[in-house]
């Protein structure tokens, strides 16, 4: 089995795209090695622009390039862009509908080692509230390749959220992806687990014991309302999980949907409005902050008791 | 060097008309950014009517609050009907109070928050080489750190098809720039970052046009034209007064101002 990171998938897919898509430009803020785009920079120097540690300028330059007809990937860590560059993303990218793909890597507690300052737990929330923005979060290496290609094909602003660690595939067979799509990773009847990103691996572990249906909501915005509602009408209960603050993330989006269209018991798992901390292994953090399969199983039990 | 503008004698007349239209727009809207729109008028008129812009050159307004000046200039340049100017800032208008690229022909970027335009202009400069990008900023805008990220960037990439113009009218919302955040040594700053700098009087058309023509000859460096201007230029009771940065006009003052611009 291939064990690679979603940032690996991004870098490899981009390298492939660079060959045929001469309209694709990559701008970078001194993190090309971490974003796995060094080879792209080397192979396609005319399509690569090093901006230095200056994310505001990087997004502005990306928007300017996009307004001249280029498809631009603007890459950094999520804690720097979209965080430092949010003003530029709001006005120069989203309001202007510039064809810019904001790529935020090392998102979530999964960043591990570097601690709270580098663990972006707010980036999905920051992107959710911007009109015209599409949010894509790959669950594994293979899907990162698919979503990178999708981002390049979609005309308009996209936020692509990537993770640092190398993880196993959450699914053996891959379905086609689309903006506003999702994939059912596992059929089940008792409960619906909705997640995004590499933490879905934990959801899949828990699902075995719960007869759960697991939905990979790789398109956090727009949300695949149809698939979610169909599953929830069958199971009648929901757990969401994401490596992000419980405020403003996928769980909030699902709650907004279900609260208005089909209210059912719901548990939102994620980081409970806290900052993270350092740890040698991100799995220790996932355990401590409630993002592992045990927490999902406990949450399912709580939902059951509430219904009884 | 031969200056290629068509008939510079017309420029003062066009400027007068543009200034009247700025006053009318802001009077009708109820309030607006008067001082900067009036201080930058001669710069914009020189750019659009002085034979400077080639077909595929582009202009980016970074200080979006100067929109009335740009709209009046674009209308006179035939980008949209002049009568539409009176819709400025009204519900449903294409003339948003701060420019929106998707709303109106001739508007390349969206602006409003300061410090966003130069980076976009730099990106466009890379995207449409060898055509030129002109970017107008205000002097108060130089307070924004993001501007200086781009100043470094444009020098690194030797963007000699990028021409920044700074409307140095010496005021910002709350007072004189010398008091709010001094930028007296702007030229030295830009020079030390590796830019070519021209300092001119922004109300003398010959100087403005000369600087814009010379900017085309500079190689391997971005250019900034620092234009000393007078806030509220053309209306005696506004000139040099920061209080007119954003204001509304009584009917009496509106008529008085218009009379001065006949």
From TrEMBL, chain A:
Which CDD domains does the annotation name? TPP_PYR_DXS_TK_like
Question: What Pfam families does its record include?
Answer: Transket_pyr, Transketolase_C
**Domain Transketolase-like pyrimidine-binding, chain residue ranges per copy:** 4-170
Q: Which UniProt keywords apply?
A: Thiamine pyrophosphate
Q: Where are the transmembrane segments?
A: none
Cofactor(s) required for function per UniProt: thiamine diphosphate
> What InterPro entries is this protein classified in?
PDH/Transketolase (IPR051157), THDP-binding (IPR029061), Transketo_C/PFOR_II (IPR009014), Transketolase-like_Pyr-bd (IPR005475), Transketolase_C (IPR033248)
Tell me which SMART domains the record gives.
Transket_pyr
> What family does the Swiss-Prot or TrEMBL record give for this protein?
Belongs to the transketolase family.
Q: What is this protein called?
A: Transketolase
Provenance organism: Candidatus Shapirobacteria bacterium CG08_land_8_20_14_0_20_39_18
Q: What is the lineage of its organism?
A: Bacteria, Candidatus Shapironibacteriota
């Amino acid at each position: 089995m291939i064990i690679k990171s979603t940032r690996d998938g991004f870098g490899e897919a981009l390298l492939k795209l660079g060959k045929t898509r001469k309209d694709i430009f990559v701008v970078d803020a001194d993190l090309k090695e971490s974003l796995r785009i060094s080879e792209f920079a080397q192979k396609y120097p005319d399509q690569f622009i090093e901006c230095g540690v200056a994310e505001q300028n990087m997004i502005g330059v990306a928007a300017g390039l996009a307004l001249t007809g280029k498809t631009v990937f603007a890459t950094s860590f999520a804690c720097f862009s979209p965080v430092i560059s949010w003003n530029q993303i709001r006005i120069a990218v989203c309001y202007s509908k510039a064809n810019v793909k904001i790529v935020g890597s090392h998102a979530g507690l999964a960043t591990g080692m570097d601690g709270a300052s580098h663990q972006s737990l707010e980036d999905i929330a920051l992107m959710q509230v911007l009109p015209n923005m599409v949010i894509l979060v790959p669950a594994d290496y293979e899907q990162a390749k698919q979503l990178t290609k999708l981002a390049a094909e979609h005309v308009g602003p996209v936020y692509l959220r990537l993770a640092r660690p190398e993880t196993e595939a959450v699914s053996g067979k891959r379905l086609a992806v689309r903006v506003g799509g999702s994939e059912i990773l596992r059929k089940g009847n008792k409960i619906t687990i909705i997640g995004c990103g590499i933490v879905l691996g934990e959801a899949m572990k828990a699902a075995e014991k719960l007869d759960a249906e697991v939905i990979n909501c790789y398109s956090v915005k727009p949300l695949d309302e149809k698939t979610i509602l169909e599953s929830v009408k069958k199971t009648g209960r929901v757990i969401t999980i994401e490596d992000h603050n419980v405020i403003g993330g996928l769980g909030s989006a699902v709650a907004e949907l279900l609260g208005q269209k089909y209210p059912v018991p719901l548990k939102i798992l994620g980081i409970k409005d806290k900052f993270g901390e350092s740890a040698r292994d991100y799995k220790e953090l996932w355990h401590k902050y409630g993002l592992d399969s045990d927490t999902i199983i406990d949450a399912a039990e709580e939902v059951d008791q509430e219904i009884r | 060097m031969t200056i290629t503008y068509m008939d510079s004698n017309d420029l003062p007349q066009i400027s007068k008309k543009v200034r009247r239209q700025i006053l009318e727009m802001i009077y009708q809207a109820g309030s607006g950014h008067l001082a900067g729109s009036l201080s930058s008028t001669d710069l914009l008129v020189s750019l659009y009517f002085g034979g400077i812009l080639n077909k595929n050159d582009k202009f980016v307004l970074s200080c979006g609050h100067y929109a009335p000046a740009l709209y009046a200039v674009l209308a006179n340049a035939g980008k949209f009907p002049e009568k539409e100017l009176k819709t400025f800032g009204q519900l449903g208008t294409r003339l948003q109070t701060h420019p929106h690229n998707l709303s109106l022909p001739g508007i390349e970027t969206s602006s409003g928050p300061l410090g966003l335009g130069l980076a976009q202009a730099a990106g466009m400069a890379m995207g449409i080489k060898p055509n030129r990008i002109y970017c107008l900023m205000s002097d108060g805008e130089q307070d924004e750190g993001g501007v200086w990220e781009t100043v470094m960037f444009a020098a690194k990439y030797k963007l000699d098809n990028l021409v920044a113009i700074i409307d140095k009218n010496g005021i910002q919302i709350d007072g004189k720039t010398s008091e709010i955040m001094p930028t007296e040594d702007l030229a030295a700053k830009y020079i030390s970052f590796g830019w070519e700098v021209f300092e001119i009087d922004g109300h003398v058309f010959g100087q403005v046009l000369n600087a814009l023509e010379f900017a085309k000859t500079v190689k391997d460096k971005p250019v900034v034209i620092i234009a000393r201007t007078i806030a509220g230029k053309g209306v005696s009771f506004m000139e040099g007064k920061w209080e007119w940065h954003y204001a509304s006009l009584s009917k009496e003052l509106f008529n008085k101002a218009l009379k001065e611009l006949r």
